[in-house]
Amino acid sequence: MPISFSEAIKKAREDLHTIIGLDIESTVSAEPSDTGWCVTLEALEKKAIPDSLDVLATYEAMLDHDGNIAEFRRIRLRKRSDTTEE
């Protein structure tokens, strides 16, 4: 049985943290795909002072139907204060 929506998010957050070694700040999106789930997460790439200059990285993780990360990639870097959409 494929994993649920909330399980996919939880698994993506835990496993991506383990793989990249960065703190996961937020879940940006999650959607089913033909092969499982596509979960987009933001991680703290570099801490700065003040916090508004922190560098956040957006990662996309593709999970299979069992919840295992099959692939991931960093798709964007931004400063915390940069809230514009691309």
Give a written overview of the molecule:
With 86 residues, the protein is of the alpha+beta class. It has one domain (5-79). The chain has one helix spanning 5-20; strands at 24-33, 36-46, 55-64, 69-79. A 4-stranded antiparallel β-sheet has the order 1-2-3-4, covered by helices on one side. A hairpin with an 8-residue loop joins β2 (36-46) and β3 (55-64). It is elongated. It starts with a helix and ends in a 7-residue tail after the last strand.
Topology, element by element:
Elements: H1 5-20, E1 24-33, E2 36-46, E3 55-64, E4 69-79
Antiparallel strand pairs: 1-2, 2-3, 3-4
Please provide the ordered H/E string of secondary-structure elements.
HEEEE
Give the fraction of residues assigned to helices.
Answer: 10-25%
> Termini separation (Å)?
36 Å
Tell me the radius of gyration: 13 Å
Which of globular, elongated, flat, extended, rod-shaped describes the shape? elongated
**Residue share in β-strands:** over 45%
Query: How many separate helices?
Result: 1
SSE class:
alpha+beta
- Which regions have little confidence, pLDDT < 50, spanning 5+ residues? none
Q: Could you report the average pLDDT, rounded to the nearest whole number?
A: 94
Count of discrete domains: 1
Provide the spatial order of strands within the biggest beta sheet: 1-2-3-4
Give the strand tally. Answer: 4
